[in-house]
Design a protein that fits this description.
alpha+beta, Gyrase A, domain 2, 3 domains, six-stranded mixed sheet
């Protein structure tokens, strides 16, 4: 018997020549086959940059699909939950897509570049599903993950730094995009992000990646711009109430147990489901769920004390298990312990719900049973993320 091991190394991103020398801790993680920074040196300072100055985050591993053809709009209208014909050229739409059982496969952002040309950005890889769904449509689906390098520039000084770098975006509204010249090429800039703050995402071809990085770093030097890893971003996205596939929910095609997949209603995205737009994948199942009710609900929790409750179980009246925490963190901006949790729908308001936490106290674990309060998401929702033009500093 011969044992075989996959020795394929994780790929460096287009920004690796700049980012990897900055990673003092050499803390890397795997993301879609790429090597990505978890922390460059100080998670707390990287998080502080997100909320007080600005940070750069490498988005290269994100999966990217170009969808084009004379029936591209009809195809995506059938695939996505939201009404695509309300999505104008130059806009970015956040949406989900489901399987036939109405269970979520993934979420992503859909960039409309033209009447029949789109870019879909998401975390998971979906080419087989996208191709199967394209049967009968005159449409072309291309994987462009390696053809586009991306940076997320987030924080209250993001627009100021872009202007300093010669990339003026003061008139760009949330969920809109623009194209600007960058040396001999161009950069696509969208007012989007995963921090719940003022921010932009910038996309270039890999041969212009280092030019973009150097220009932003130079422009942001006087403003406290610094690179940030996934650990700092995770704190910000929990404060914003954002979910991550494979962490806060299991994509339907990854679920080994059928009952572990979740619907848009169960994830708190019922507002996204547009039943009036015509047929779409999962519509019948979601109509039934709307009539009969959902078994699960997604809630935000305020937890007493200062101990993060990630992975903790939830109980009703301290006795009966009714759910669990999927993501949790001590929030520096709200000065509280916050969590995203899945609970049985009848307990979604958080009445008489308790969390069981095992907190480490000087090399020993202490069991804490604490009452929790269901609160609205996002936990942090600054007006600056919507202001147009953004405030300058």
């Amino acid at each position: 018997m011969t044992l075989r091991f996959d020795l394929t190394p994780l790929l460096p991103t287009a920004f690796a020549p700049r980012t990897e020398p900055l990673n003092k801790l050499m803390r890397f993680g795997a993301w879609a086959g790429y090597r990505t920074a978890l922390c460059y040196g100080d998670t707390e300072m990287e998080y502080a940059a997100i909320r007080n100055t600005a940070m750069l985050y490498d988005l290269c591993p994100m999966t990217k699909y170009r969808i084009s053809g004379v029936e591209a709009e009809d195809y995506l209208q059938r695939l996505m939950l939201r009404h695509l014909r309300k999505h104008s050229v130059g806009g970015v739409q956040y949406s989900l897509w489901c399987d036939d059982a109405g269970k979520v496969l993934d979420d992503g952002t859909l960039f409309r570049l033209g009447p029949q040309e789109f870019l879909l950005f998401c975390q998971e890889r979906h080419m087989p599903w996208l191709l199967d769904s394209a049967m009968g449509f005159d449409v072309r689906v291309e994987d462009q993950t390696t053809d586009l390098a991306g940076l997320s520039l987030q924080g209250p000084l993001a627009a100021t730094i872009l202007a300093k770098a010669g990339l003026e975006v003061s008139s760009l509204k949330p969920f809109r995009l623009t194209h600007l010249p960058l040396g001999a090429g161009q950069v696509m800039i969208s007012r989007t992000g995963f921090t719940g703050d003022l921010g932009y995402e910038l996309w270039v071809t890999p041969d212009h990646a280092l030019t973009l990085w150097d220009r932003l770093i130079e422009a942001g030097a006087a403003y406290g711009l610094r690179p940030a890893g996934s650990d700092a971003l995770n704190i910000a996205r929990i404060e914003a109430g954002f979910l991550i596939a494979t962490l806060d929910f299991i994509p339907a095609h990854h679920a080994l147990r059928e009952h572990r997949a979740r619907s848009p209603f169960e994830l708190g995205f019922g507002w996204m489901v547009d039943f009036d737009k015509g047929p779409f994948t999962g519509r019948r199942a979601l109509l039934r769920e709307r009539e009969t009710g959902s078994r699960w609900a997604r809630v935000g929790l305020d937890i007493p004390g200062n101990v993060a409750a990630e992975g903790a179980l939830l109980y009703h009246l301290r006795k009966h298990e009714v759910g669990h925490v999927t993501s949790a963190v001590w929030s520096p901006i709200t000065k509280s312990s916050i969590a995203l949790a899945e609970v049985q729908a009848r307990h979604a308001r958080g009445h008489d719900v308790w969390v069981e936490i095992y907190a480490e106290r000087e090399l020993q674990y202490a069991k804490l049973m604490l009452p929790v309060t269901a609160v609205e998401r996002p936990f942090f929702n600054p007006a600056r993320k919507r202001a147009t033009p953004p405030e300058r500093f």
